[in-house]
Amino acid sequence: MPVTLVVEDDADHRNLLVLLLERAGCRVHAVADGADALPLAQRVRPDLVVLDWRLPNLPGPEVCRRLRATPKTAEVAVLMVTAWGGDSVENARQEACRAGADDFILKPIHPQEFLARVLTLLKRFPPARDRP
């Protein structure tokens, strides 16, 4: 059973992501704050982090950079999520890539697309229990 971590400050959106991941057979941990995500990721060693861009205390790209800089979480799959639109989407996508995100998706989330991306990432990355 894959372990996932959802980092999303909007309660409704967080609950939707948790529900979708649980229906896909994942064990899900969720937090609303970027700063809370880092110690939890160290403790639960998720296979996938679904990470909102705009978070209180520590924005998504910085959370991603810190995950990548820590040996226990350096190889976790990261799916960055944002509600940004217009011309800023491409800038956000590029920044997410520079921060180390593996994929990027826009809100509002379309459940089938979200789950397809999640399953693809989970296939591409070894489970945390198989990582050093």
Automatic annotation (TrEMBL):
Whether Phosphoprotein counts among this entry's keywords is: yes
Please, which domain of life does this record's source organism belong to? Bacteria
User: Which terms are listed as keywords in the entry?
Assistant: Phosphoprotein
Q: Which GO terms describe its biological process?
A: phosphorelay signal transduction system
What Pfam families would the database entry show? Answer: Response_reg (PF00072)
Give every Response regulatory domain span: 3-122
Signal peptide per UniProt: none
Q: Where in the sequence is 4-aspartylphosphate found? A: 52
CDD domains, alphabetized? REC_OmpR
Q: What's the name of the protein?
A: Response regulatory domain-containing protein
Organism this protein belongs to = Planomonospora parontospora
Q: Tell me the organism's taxonomic lineage.
A: Bacteria, Bacillati, Actinomycetota, Actinomycetes, Streptosporangiales
